[in-house]
Amino acid sequence: MTEQATGAHHPQPRARTGGQPSATVEHVTGAQSLIRSLEEVGADTVFGLPGGCILPAYDPLMDSTRVRHILVRHEQGAGHAATGYAQATGKVGVCMVTSGPGATNLVTPIADAAMDSVPMVAITGQVASSAIGTDAFQEADICGITMPITKHNFLVTRAEDIAHTIAEAFHIASTGRPGPVLVDIAKDALQARTTFSWPPAMDLPGYRPVTKPHAKQIREAAKLITQAKRPVLYVGGGVLKAGATAELKVLAELTGAPVTTTLMALGAFPDSHPLHVGMPGMHGSVTAVTALQKADLIVALGARFDDRVTGKLDSFAPYAKIVHADIDPAEIGKNRTADVPIVGDAREVLADLVQAVQAEHTEGNTGDYSAWWKDLSRWRETYPLGYDLPDDGSLSPQQVIQRIGQLAPEGTIFAAGVGQHQMWAAHFIDYEQPATWLNSGGAGTMGYAVPAAMGAKAGAPERTVWAIDGDGCFQMTNQELTTCALNNIPIKVAVINNGALGMVRQWQTLFYNQRYSNTVLHSGPDADGTPARGTRVPDFVKLSEAMGCYSIRCEDPADLDKVIEEANSINDRPVVIDFIVHEDAMVWPMVAAGTSNDEVQAARGVRPDFGENEDD
Does residue 138 have an active-site annotation? Predict the structure, then answer.
């Protein structure tokens, strides 16, 4: 087995070797072995929904005092909640569902976790081993279905294999490049008798993630950093996964190089730090996008040169040498050839880079980036992030999100759905600490925010958790508000309600001659032709109240602060605010899909002018 997704692993009978078994061997069912194993690996929270094939596991779960089970309303909610829990706590998120449709409802959150490298273990019930392959009731080959989107998966058909499989699953999910692992357990394996002892022997031939970087490559990278005139530290989500934010700050301040943090890395480096030039990508800041384009050296740390960052790949950063450090060797050179490839854990890579750069400085080799910072500072001052307030006096979505960020208690966790509100939340909330920004980056999963916020709040109950959601996203998974209300998980939800699928509508405005095909979420225009802003189907306030939430509607900018402060003051139940915002607001800056980052627009029709002298 390698770092990449592999096929279903069928545990084989073998003698117990290695490990330190506990003094007493317990005689248990497979189901009891499963619950005991979850206790021993430290899984304190499981999000799930029972059904026939997983039902044997739910009986001993009732007796566990160490594992809290949170009953979701839809299996997709269980998966995203496990992801939110993992992203907020740094621990492995766990979800558990039954076979067939229960398991297939996990496919989206499993794919989401795989794209964003989130450590998650998904446990699914399966029909009895004798019925596998017969198209039995509620049978689905979930191992086959999820093979491309899991880091690894297991089919367990024997009770005695459950304990070591759970230990292996948690080890694989949380080490190397984190990712989702699926454990599919046949019903008869849960019902059969076996023995339980801990820790079990793990058998993972070939799975040895490289964490320590090669010293020669580190030295080469340090030389390039000190020789460069226009370097950029391109920071991805791997820095957060590795817990390497302190080391990143030391390296940045040691070198004086500008830092850009991807959508998945917001909070890895303080937004307010003078070395931070913003988020890169399709909707990144002009300064960050342009810095990468004009750099002569890009030091990529736990990032993967995603298409949303690079734009048209063959025109991306034409002058730059590439240092690419990643724990997954498959990512290095996948999209952009690396001049200096470094395989290793981001924390160890950064710590070693700091020492190597210090050694270069001792020898008198220090980078001179003064001319580079003169350009960067001018771009930052000329093309700052901003927005216009609507002429009709209605609520600006950017202002709503900005004020939520400004009025939130320190350490608040923000989870966003996908679309315009996601980009505005990335731009207009300041992220100063790691693990304060949760979103679906790689998959772009609508419906992520509410269950992810629920998982984050369950994992960090002392923190305030805001879900910034769109009215389209909210209608996909809002049923988990019931779960929140019944399980004392008082999240706060801002519905940025523009009556449309906002990002798709923006593309229709820009590229489809304002032909708004199937992006309007309300009932269409009134008789006089004006938008039906008074039509509320569904009425989010009534809907949220029906699910046990405190709910408010806000339409007047004069009420904005009062409403947000009211939401922050309520901590005994979930709060939902329906913000009725202007439907024509757009996300800027923007690089149109398939075009070069050189064609970044600061606003509609506004192409930055960088001057001829900067193109050499």
Answer: yes
Q: Coil, strand or helix: which one is 26?
A: strand
Considering the candidates 151, 187, 241, 294, report the single residue annotated as catalytic: 187
Kindly provide the b/e burial profile for residues 367-403, where b requires at least 16 CB atoms within 10 angstroms of the residue's own CB. bebeebbebbeebbeebebebeebeeebbbbbbbbbb
Catalytic residue among 1, 39, 138, 312: 138
- DSSP for 146-173, please give it: HGGGSSEEEEE-SGGGHHHHHHHHHHHH
Q: Determine whether 503 is an active site residue.
A: yes
**Tokens standing for 307?**
């298409």
pLDDT at 383 exceeding the cut of 70: yes
Kindly report the backbone phi and psi dihedral angles of residue 365, in degrees, each rounded to the nearest multiple of 5, phi listed first: -100, 100
* CA angle, residues 326, 330, 336, in degrees to nearest 5: 75
pLDDT in tens, 396-443: 999 999 999 999 999 999 999 999 999 999 999 999 999 999 999 999
Instruction: For residue 137, indicate whether it is catalytic.
Output: yes
| 223 part of the active site | no
Query: If we measure between CA atoms, which residue out of 376, 364, 377 comes closest to residue 227?
Result: 364
DSSP code for 201: P
The SS3 of residue 128 is coil
Q: Are 212 and 344 in contact (CB under 8 A)?
A: yes
Distance CA 24, CA 5 (A): 36
Q: Is pTM beyond 0.85 here? A: yes
Active site residue 579: no
